[in-house]
């Protein structure tokens, strides 16, 4: 059984899950929802971005700069495969 | 969401799942079933043993030494809690 390290890391697993469920989301919303520090979240999102799992957009909303993140098709696929692996492991417990 | 590092590590997650499903199992069976090296498996089992998640037994079977591992009650509980956390994450995806 393969566990993709990019997805399996605990904080990133929650980032993938949040973006998978909510779609494009502001950085500030992720910080609050996942209860992580900004620095920790930034470094994980950079890792995800460098692996082309997320795309970042910077824009002005009501004249204020806002950074949003969204899973790429590749990121969606990586996450769906990982959930399938976890479900296989869990389903296998009942023997 | 808390992910217990002892359980969440990919190889250990599969060791927990295998012992949870099959009960007490020989080391050699784990090596084959999980497709890991003996050294890698030994080090993870030592980590699990030091956290009282497994107990090891050494005995002679047909005059040959055999080492078996079994989840402790604590190990079972840690694993069940972790599966519950994973299920909560997965169930939350459908919004």
UniProtKB/TrEMBL annotation, chains A, B:
It comes from the Archaea. Residues 12-90 form the Winged helix DNA-binding domain. Signal peptide: none annotated. The keyword DNA-binding applies. GO terms for molecular function: DNA binding. Keywords: DNA-binding. Coiled coil: none annotated. Pfam families: HTH_34. PANTHER family: BSL7504 PROTEIN (PTHR37318:SF1). This is DNA-binding transcriptional regulator, MarR family. It comes from Halovenus aranensis.
């Amino acid at each position: 059984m393969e566990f993709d390290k990019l997805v399996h890391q605990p904080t990133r697993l929650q980032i993938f899950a949040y973006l998978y469920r909510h779609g494009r989301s502001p950085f500030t919303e992720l910080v609050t929802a996942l209860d992580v520090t900004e620095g920790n979240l930034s470094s994980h999102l950079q890792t995800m971005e460098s692996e082309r799992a997320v795309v970042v957009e910077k824009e002005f909303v009501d004249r204020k700069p806002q950074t949003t993140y969204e899973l790429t098709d590749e990121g969606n696929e990586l996450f769906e495969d990982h959930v399938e692996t976890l479900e296989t492991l869990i389903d296998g417990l009942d023997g």
